[in-house]
Amino acid sequence: MFAIVEATFLAPDVKRFRIEAPRVARNRQAGQFVIVRVEAEHGERIPLTIADSDPTAGTITIIVQGVGKTTKMLNRLEAGDSIPDVVGPLGEPSDIQNFGTVVVVGGGVGTAIAYPTAVAMKQAGNRVIGIVGARTKELLILEEEMAATTDQLHLMTDDGSYGEQGFVTQKLQQLIDDGGIDHVLAIGPIPMMAAIAEVTRPHGIKTIVSLNPIMVDGTGMCGGCRVTVGGESKFACVDGPEFDAHDVDFKILTQRNKMYRQREQRSLDEFEMTTQPELGPCHLQEEHPEVGPRVGGV
Ligand code: FAD
Ligand code: FES
Ligand code: MG
Questions:
Q1: 66, 198, 273, 285: which could form a disulfide with 72 (CB 3.0–4.6 Å)?
Q2: Which of 109, 214, 226, 253 to mutate to test the pocket of ligand 1 (most atoms within 8 A of CB)?
């Protein structure tokens, strides 16, 4: 059992946990993740990036966005509760070198995944420029932490409710037009990472993305996390999760991630039904399946 020592919401349905996991805390490097199981028996395994660690206290930090059954179950846990399984550190660490000027782009909860690498890039002597984006103000996370580790930070919201209005790609384009960018790390939703790859490609700026295929064992054995990079099959859990954005086939990644969408929605509906029984069964959907499943308790 892995005890939760701290649990705080950073944004609606985005929660930061500090967990006792001394061996992982001692050995982890930027870019690595853990595989977590929230239910001891029959629970599914999900990968979560190690956002930070404290080897002296023996704790790691994970930041979780509740998107489906397992992440929403996790986000109901509090300090004092515990997690049955935390396995790691897994994956290849980020390639940290003194590249010169590095732009770190984080979209939504992708900022939590990019943050440890931003810290390591700064420690390696790079000038680090951060671009943090979110749909709206309340979803923008880790502003303080990114400000403390970057030489310059740009905050972007789609609706202009905070920072500048616009997409992270627009800000990156501006920075590239100003000149002097040597390396880019971009982590966020797949369409965002695919768009960033097209911004940097014409300029030949090395661009790294962290891929999020479905992972099961996290050790290269199940084949679940197969991605296509440079025309070759790779397993993101052992060959990645970071890859050269200019070589990634984002179309195949998007298709593979959608494979279990219906089953995932069904298990979320069942979970919400058992935890919010007052909602009752959705008779409208039983009679008219074309209306689709109940979403978010609506
Ligand atoms: P579901 O309803 O089961 O699925 C929702 C969507 O999540 C799916 O459509 C699929 O795209 C994805 N997903 C589902 N199961 C898995 C799985 N076993 N492995 C990977 N993706 C899955 N999220 C965070 O909030 N914080 C992080 O730090 C973080 N780090 C990640 C690091 C890596 C290397 C990877 C691959 C993913 C990371 N994710 C992170 C994404 C997180 O693993 C998924 O959101 C989570 O597994 C969804 O599970 P669910 O049951 O709540 O949702
Ligand atoms: Fe099984 Fe990568 S998660 S091979
Ligand atoms: Mg799931």
A1: 66
A2: 214
168-178 and 190-200 helices, crossing angle to 10°: 20
Q: How far apart are CA 176 and CA 12, in angstroms?
A: 33
Ligand 1 neighbour 214 (Cβ under 6 A): yes
Pocket residue to mutate for ligand 1, from 24, 32, 48, most atoms within 8 A of Cβ = 48
Q: Which atom of ligand 2 is nearest to the CA of 222?
A: 1
Pairing state between β 33-37 and 101-107: unpaired
Q: Does residue 95 have a pLDDT over 50?
A: yes
pLDDT tens digits for range 233-288: 999 999 999 999 999 999 999 988 877 677 777 777 777 777 765 554 444 445 54
126-177 pLDDT per residue, tens:
999 999 999 999 999 999 999 999 999 999 999 999 999 999 999 999 999 9
Please, what is the angle between helix 250-257 and helix 190-200, to 10°?
180
Within a 10 A sphere around the Cβ of 112, how many other Cβ atoms? 26
The top-level CATH class assigned to 101-257 is: alpha beta
Q: Does the structural domain 2-90 have CATH classification 3.30.360.10?
A: no
Compute how many other C-beta atoms are within 10 angstroms of the C-beta atom of residue 81: 14
Domain ranges for the chain: 2-90, 101-257
* Beta-bridge mates of residue 228: 233
Q: What residue has token string 């369409």?
A: 191
